[in-house]
Amino acid sequence: MFATLNIKYMTNNKTEQFNKQQKEFSAIAKALSHPARIAIIQLLAEKKEIKTGNISDDLPIARTTVSQHLKILKNAGIISGTIDGLKIHYCLDMKKIRKINNCFDKWFSEIITDYKCKC
Fold first, then answer.
1. Could you say which of 3.40.30.10, 3.30.1340.30, 1.10.10.10, 3.30.200.20 is the CATH number of the domain covering 19-112?
2. How is the chain classified by DSSP, letter by letter?
3. Which of 25, 41, 72, 89 would you label with 33, given CA atoms 20 to 30 Å apart?
4. What's the pLDDT at 60?
5. What's the predicted TM-score (pTM) here?
6. 89 in Cβ contact with 47 (< 8 Å)
7. Alpha-carbon gap, residue 35 to 37, rounded angstroms
């Protein structure tokens, strides 16, 4: 589904009790779970490409904090970066984003199809 992710799933030692899809969805959700990471994704969607140092110019977070968030997004495969001297140019990995979108869309569609609450 999402291929191999370089994100640690859950720290709970009962992780093996969950299936692969649940772990992968959880890892992606974790990567998207901070408003700064959502803002970075939106900024990259708007600007198409941005240099590492310039991201903190557009967001209310420090460069070191931006770097931490970029690392999480990159490990999840949501963004990619190419090195240019001392700077890294980041952009969205649209192939991965489409895959995430399709998987979540399919998953939610399966949940809501013929769903009737019994409470």
1. 1.10.10.10
2. ------S---SSTTGGGS-HHHHHHHHHHHHT-SHHHHHHHHHHHHHS-EEHHHHHHHSSS-HHHHHHHHHHHHHTTSEEEEEETTEEEEEE-HHHHHHHHHHHHHHHHHHHTT-----
3. 89
4. 85
5. 0.74
6. no
7. 5
pLDDT tens string 18-61: 888 888 888 888 898 999 999 999 999 998 888 776 777 788 88
pLDDT of 8 over the 60 cut? no
